[in-house]
Design brief:
This protein is 29% helix and 23% strand. By secondary structure, the protein is α+β, with helices and mostly antiparallel strands. The longest helix has 17 residues. The chain is globular and about 50 Å long.
Length: 123
């Protein structure tokens, strides 16, 4: 699936390196610069799932939109966007844990650091 996503020509790149689909074990993160790119990437994932008789856990699927400060007014537009996995809508969130780190829409570590402090104090 990662090769298919890479060959689709959508998603994010760092220079010539495709970074639009990151995976670890059974976790996959799609990174897209445009709404249309994410729609296409999700369609590729759905097609792959159908072809190989697998399913994505829609209860664990979330969408985190990140905008630079100068474009954060665009968050209001997200209410018009709906993304689907396996025919079910994906919830928009302000943060989510991924591989032990809390990522958030503000692009800072405040929430993650607070969480780590609570864990440290609980010991």
């Amino acid at each position: 699936m990662l090769v298919i996503l890479c060959n689709a020509g959508v998603g994010c790149y760092f220079g010539n390196f495709f970074i639009g689909a990151l995976s670890y074990a059974d976790d996959v993160v799609l990174i897209a610069p445009l709404i249309s790119a994410l729609h296409k990437m999700l369609a590729i994932c759905d097609s792959f799932a159908t072809d190989y008789c697998i399913s994505f856990n829609t209860k664990k699927s979330e969408c985190l939109a990140v905008f630079p400060r100068s474009k954060r007014f665009l968050y209001a537009q997200l209410s018009k966007c709906v993304f689907y996995v396996d025919g079910k809508p994906i919830e928009f969130v302000q943060s989510y844990p991924h591989l032990g780190h809390i990522d958030n829409a503000r692009m800072d570590d405040t929430e993650d650091i607070s969480y780590r402090r609570v864990l440290l104090l609980a010991k």
